[in-house]
Design a protein that fits this description.
With about 260 residues, this protein is of the alpha/beta class. Helices cover about 30% and strands about 25% of the residues. The chain folds into 2 domains: about 210 residues, Rossmann fold (3-Layer(aba) Sandwich); about 40 residues, no CATH class. Strand 8 and strand 9 form a beta hairpin. The structure holds adenosine-5'-triphosphate (ATP). It holds the Pfam family ABC_tran.
Length: about 260
């Protein structure tokens, strides 16, 4: 399932927080959406899904809400549950948009196993740790079995082993022809698992390509105010983020 955005713009108080973004994501992609805090990553995904008003076009917004829900699943950044609902029932809520009731049990069980939350099935969602709840909400996302997944910081708050598991799962979905777009602050994870990185800065799309093409020293310094490098390891090249180089134009706060 591909995603096509044409000239997408979101204005808030007259200022564009997403500024004329055009993006084509073919089926079978795992795209990491990166950029500093406030760059517009969440806003772009919300606009793509038709959750907020936007100028320009997203091929998702042309669909009826019911068809859109069967095509795209959304993991919001906020991980809050207001009711003490049992975990399994919460994951099952992901099945609402799919009319195929016979698939419910398998979809829920498979999603819970993939996120290692089967043992939490009867626990109240309001009584989980932050990382456990995050995994349960990703399981709800997977239970929807949509061809397109948009996830806002899906690995934030997960321990390293579960971060790897989720990133590997998304990469596998892409190999199977599904499409995943995820905002990610951990550049090492993004560089390792995503086929393509899309870099946003101040609402604009400023770089788009393979991780090694996007994570260049000049861009890292300009956009994030850091440096970084791909370091060879026995497990392949690993991207390491470093403080800005001496003499960098990035302002360094004075010592207290
Ligand atoms: N509901 C809102 N009303 C007004 N401004 C908003 C709203 N939500 C976000 N913004 C602003 O829009 C800009 C983009 O925010 P957005 O959440 O898309 O950034 P982001 O790249 O996802 O950031 P982060 O990495 O911190 O999650 C920011 O300047 C933010 O302050």
């Amino acid at each position: 399932m591909s995603l096509s955005l044409q000239d997408l713009t979101v204005r808030r108080d007259g200022c564009p927080t997403v500024d004329h973004v055009t993006l084509e994501v073919p089926a079978g992609s795992f795209v990491g959406l990166i950029g500093p805090n406030g760059a517009g990553k969440t806003t772009l995904m919300q606009a793509a899904l038709g959750l907020i008003p936007a100028e320009g076009q997203s091929d998702l917004t042309a669909l009826s809400p019911a068809r859109r829900a069967r095509r795209a699943a959304w993991l919001p950044q906020a991980r809050e549950i207001a009711w003490p609902i049992p975990v399994e029932a919460l994951v099952r809520l992901g099945r609402r948009a799919d009319p195929d009731r016979r698939a419910d049990a398998a979809a829920v069980a498979e999603a819970m196993a993939a996120l290692d939350v089967t043992h939490l099935a009867s626990r109240r969602a309001t009584e989980l740790s932050g990382g456990e709840l995050a995994r349960v909400l990703i399981a709800r996302l997977l239970a929807q079995r949509t061809p397109l997944i948009l996830a806002d910081e899906p690995v934030a708050g997960l321990d390293p082993s579960h971060q790897f598991a989720v990133m590997e799962l998304f990469a596998r979905f892409a190999r199977q022809g599904r499409t995943v777009i995820a905002s990610i602050h951990d550049l090492a994870l993004a560089a390792r698992f995503c086929h393509r990185l899309v870099l946003m800065d101040r609402g604009r799309l400023v770089a788009d390509g393979r991780p090694s093409e996007v994570l260049t020293p000049a861009r890292l310094e300009q956009v994030f105010g850091v440096s970084g490098a791909f370091v060879p390891t026995p497990a392949g090249p690993v991207f390491v983020t470093l403080p800005p180089p001496p003499g960098s134009s990035v302002p360094v706060p004075p010592e207290p």
